[in-house]
Amino acid sequence: MKHLDGEAIALLALGEPADDAARAHLEGCQSCRAELTELTSLVGAAREGGPDLEPPSDAVWARIRSRIDDGVTGSGPVTGSEDAGRRPARSPSGSRPADTRPPRRRRRVGARTWSFLAGAVAAALVVVAVVWAVGVRSPDRVLASADLAPLGQATGSGSAELQRTADGIDQLRLQVGGDRVRGYPEVWLIAKDGKRMVSLGTLHDGSAVLPVPAGLDVRDYATVDVSDEPLDGNPAHSGDSILRGSLTF
After folding, report:
1. Strand partners, 148
2. Which has fewest Cβ within 10 Å: 22, 33, 36, 235?
3. How confident is the model at residue 53 (pLDDT cuts 50, 70, 90)?
4. Which helix (H) or strand (E) holds 189?
5. CA-derived radius of gyration, the chain
């Protein structure tokens, strides 16, 4: 299953309406929902004036200015030679001819123009905060990966990545497909002796991001197993493994 890209999630966090495809994906993808929730909270904090963020680089500001200039060309104040070309000529007595344009309308146009500019800059700042936070606050580092192959009569496949977040938390990210289960798919880490195992959680719509228990030696529990678990209330492994693979560090 293909996840929503970062730009799409950032726009949704900023309040853009979700189309039917994005809405359907979010309903079935726990990972993208969690990322959207985090970014939405960040946007709210940025709009309220916190938390403090380090300034973006000059290159980022240059791109923001370029985007704003592209959107509002010709709507800002007139300066330089352009202003000279529009300034009414003086009369022989040195006084300016009367300006017959309605002054109230000029003030309204100016207010709309600067209101638009202020809104564009504010939106750009929020986008910078979101994009910067995505890049800085979520530099998940891949520690190991595994290809998941089918077992028995299963025909599916999948992949798993062991990641470490910026907060030092280890998590297992899985993406699988191709098989239907009779009960529900549960994810396990199995030790090298083939006897000890730890359940991490369940897959939802073929994907999951599951935290690894703190202190667990993942180099020992290096086998990723996906089982088909019946709805019988028994927390033990059913013995019906459908996918399995070994983490390579």
Report:
1. 158
2. 235
3. low
4. strand 184-190
5. 28
pLDDT, tens digit, for every residue of 186-212?
A: 999 999 999 999 999 999 999 999 999
pTM of the model: 0.48
Ordered by start, the domain boundaries in the chain are 1-88+102-138, 141-246
- CA 98 to mean position of chain CA atoms: 56
Phi, psi dihedrals of residue 247, rounded to the nearest 5°: -70, 130
- Amino acid sitting at position 126: V
Beta bridge partners of 190: 197, 223
Q: Give the pair of three-digit tokens for residue 82.
A: 């352009």
Tokens 């998940």, residue located = 140
Q: For the segment 10-48, what is each residue's pLDDT rounded down to a tens digit?
A: 888 888 888 888 888 888 888 888 888 888 877 777 666
| Inter-residue contact 179 to 154 (CB < 8 Å) | yes
| Best CA proximity match to 134, nearest among 3, 33, 35 | 35
Cβ-based burial of 81 (10 A; exposed 0-12, middle 13-18, buried ≥19): exposed
Tell me 204's DSSP state.
Answer: B
